[in-house]
Structure to design on (302 residues):
């Protein structure tokens, strides 16, 4: 008889809104206006995706609006949310930080004003006491290699994203090819530091003007959002929506046995409760998820 595995905590997401039932039969313009109003987060991404999926014209400047939305979310994590969870002061930024000015980049990244391009330079960057470097350093110190990690999961693509199965649909997935992140995955695993650094690297890229992407599909659309890929499929008959599917990065994050389950399972039992709030904030579900002590699993018989 095999010994049961210890899972210190488990995730408990709130039930998702029945969005499809809420929009079926409604006129396309009503659905396009309704969807961004239903949720507090990623309104621009949702508006872009639903309009593209319904075959409607996109608003002028949508790409810049989406870039700014992702920028705001990334800065909120790195400069406000994560420092607060580690009892650290917020990172102060100049008023013009969204422009990517020299002063803004200096405030965020210190000297030089940007994330390191090579793994060999990461240690020196993290040793700084300015900008986001102390926040990332604190995360690296709180989570030892292998703690709060998930396995190597298939990365979400514009086709696979509509399958609600175990896949990596995150900022880390779309920044995974960066050489520093590739090395961190080897030394620390696919865990909190890997995820947090990915947000920092994407913030750096967005501040240099890199635009988020939109993919138009047959009867659907996929767009880059603050947490990963966000997708919608829809069918329209006589100006009304007759079929509708919405997929978010959190659907993949909270899939049974997926990134969140694996990350919680790999926390050290004696520190799980203390680390869980920060881990959850780094993984960043877009709807409320609580964690609770996990019941020990029944032993598996050989």
């Amino acid at each position: 008889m095999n010994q049961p595995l210890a899972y210190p905590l488990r995730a408990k997401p709130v039930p998702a809104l029945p969005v499809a039932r809420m929009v079926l039969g409604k006129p396309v313009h009503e659905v396009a206006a309704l969807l961004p109003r239903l949720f507090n987060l990623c309104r621009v991404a949702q508006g872009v995706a639903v309009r593209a999926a319904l075959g409607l014209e996109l608003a002028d400047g949508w790409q810049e609006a989406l870039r700014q939305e992702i920028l705001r979310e990334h800065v909120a994590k790195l400069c406000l949310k994560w420092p607060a969870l580690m009892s650290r002061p917020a990172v102060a930024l100049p008023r013009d930080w969204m422009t990517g000015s020299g002063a803004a980049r200096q405030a965020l990244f210190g000297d030089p004003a940007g994330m390191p391009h090579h793994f060999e330079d990461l240690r020196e960057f993290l040793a700084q006491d300015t900008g986001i470097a102390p926040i990332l350093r604190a995360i690296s110190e709180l989570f030892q290699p292998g703690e709060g990690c998930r396995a190597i999961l298939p990365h979400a693509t514009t086709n696979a994203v509509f399958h609600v199965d175990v896949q990596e649909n995150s900022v880390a997935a779309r920044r995974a090819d960066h050489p520093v992140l590739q090395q961190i995955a080897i030394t620390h695993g696919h865990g909190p530091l890997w995820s947090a650094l990915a947000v920092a690297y994407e913030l750096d890229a967005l501040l240099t003007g890199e635009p988020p992407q939109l993919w138009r599909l047959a009867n659907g659309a996929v767009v880059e959002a603050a947490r990963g890929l966000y997708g919608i499929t829809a069918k329209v008959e006589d100006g009304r929506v007759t079929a509708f599917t919405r997929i978010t990065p959190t659907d993949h994050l909270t899939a049974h046995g997926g990134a969140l389950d694996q990350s919680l399972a790999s926390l050290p039992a004696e520190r799980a409760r203390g680390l869980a709030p920060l881990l959850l904030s780094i993984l960043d579900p877009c709807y409320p998820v609580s964690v609770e002590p996990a019941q020990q699993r029944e032993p598996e018989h050989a």
